Amino acid sequence: MKRQNLFTLAAFFSVLAFTVSAEEIGEVSTVFKLLGANHKIIVEGFDDPDVPGVACHISRAKTGGMKGAVGLAEDPSEASIACRQIGPIDTSKLAKLKNGDVVFKENLSLVFKTLQVVRFYDKKRNVLVYLAYSDKVIEGSPKNSISSVPVMKWD
């Protein structure tokens, strides 16, 4: 019974590990809508939960109109990402990172579409690589964007 409880706790915390919430930095309106919110591009920022010292910013389209105002609109599958080293990185922890870990996830529709950011560590080049992509349960999406963060000594 204890083993099952530990598994449940581990599953719960693994879900929390990739539900990092982004902070909205700003937005610009792109299309005026007479009824409901305008279509816009929003810029959000978040810190890598497993690598303190790295921050990422994502820009993405947000659908407006009446459906967008009540949260029923499906946002486009387009996003851009930029990540930078903003502080010291504990390099001893980098080897323990698992390639493809989800570090950020956000719903783009009510149920079926998400925007995800996954991290890879290129040990040969000593670089963290962040891949932003959207996926749909039914068909997926090839639209993606990457950003590389060279791990440098921080003085």
Structure description:
The structure is a single chain. The protein is mainly beta. The protein has one domain (2-150). The protein has two helices and eight strands. It has helices spanning 2-17, 65-69, and strands spanning 23-31, 39-47, 54-62, 79-85, 101-107, 113-122, 127-136, 144-150. The strands form two sheets. Strands 1-2-3-4 form a four-stranded antiparallel β-sheet, with no helix packed on it. A hairpin with a 7-residue loop joins β7 (127-136) and β8. It is elongated. The N and C termini lie far apart (49 Å).
What is the fold's blueprint, element by element?
Elements: H1 2-17, E1 23-31, E2 39-47, E3 54-62, H2 65-69, E4 79-85, E5 101-107, E6 113-122, E7 127-136, E8 144-150
Antiparallel strand pairs: 1-2, 2-3, 3-4, 5-6, 6-7, 7-8
Q: What is the N-to-C succession of helices and strands? A: HEEEHEEEEE
Cα distance spanning the termini: 49 Å
Mean pLDDT: 82
Can you tell me the number of structural domains?
1
Radius of gyration using CA atoms only: 18 Å
Q: What's the total helix number?
A: 2
The helix content is: 10-25%
Order of strands across the widest beta sheet?
1-2-3-4
Residue ranges: pLDDT <50 for 5 or more in a row?
A: 5-18
- Number of extended strands: 8
What structural category do the secondary elements indicate? Answer: mainly beta
Backbone shape: elongated
Major sheet, described briefly? 4 strands, antiparallel
User: How much strand?
Assistant: 35-45%
Protein name: Protein CreA
Pfam families: CreA
Signal peptide: 1-22
Keywords: Signal
